[in-house]
Write a structure and sequence with these properties.
Layout (H helix, E strand, L loop, with lengths): L1 E5 L8 E2 L3 H9 L12 H21 L10 E3 L3 H11 L4 E7 L6 E5 L10 H14 L6 E5 L3 E6 L1
Antiparallel strand pairs: 1-4, 2-7, 3-6, 4-7, 5-6
Length: about 160
């Protein structure tokens, strides 16, 4: 069983397809006027820079790893999903879910490396991106799951 955090009101049995985060980021990258995505223009600029660096690191380290842009984000520990919700998606739901198909490409990563530390982004993002794709998690575990999942419950 896995855990997924979302503002969407998924029903039990619903299928969550990979790529929602990537679709949102790609939409941000194509608009010429501000869109309300729930965060400030400076914040989404930082998010675009951050995710671009993480994607570039993935492509350089191992292009076979699943992309953060084309995945479903999961946790295998309920407390980690709740921690993510409380820190980044206040008011969102925590769902339990199961994979739709077996043997889907996935990567276990350390979400704590996604937290923005003090310092110049140009200095802190690249080494964190490399660690994210290269090292075993020591903090909050995040699974980058390249397949669909079925909602089995809501906590």
């Amino acid at each position: 069983m896995y855990f997924h955090v979302s503002y969407a009101n998924w029903q039990i049995g619903a299928i969550i397809q990979p790529g929602n985060w990537g679709r949102q980021l790609r939409q941000l990258g194509t608009v010429s006027i501000p869109i309300d995505f729930g965060f400030s223009p400076l914040s989404y600029t930082k998010t675009m820079i951050w995710e671009s660096c993480f994607e570039a690191a993935r492509l350089r380290i191992d292009p076979a790893l699943p992309s953060r842009l084309d995945c479903v984000f999961l946790c295998d520990v309920q407390a980690h999903a709740e921690q993510f919700r409380n820190s980044y998606r206040q008011g969102a739901y925590v769902y339990t879910c199961d994979p739709v198909a077996p043997n889907v490409n996935q990567h276990l990563s350390d979400f704590s490396l996604m937290e923005v530390p003090n310092g110049a982004l140009i200095d802190v993002i690249p080494p964190r991106a490399i660690q994210y794709w290269s090292n075993q998690p020591v903090g909050t575990r995040e699974i980058i799951y390249a397949g669909s999942v079925r909602v089995t419950g809501r906590l």
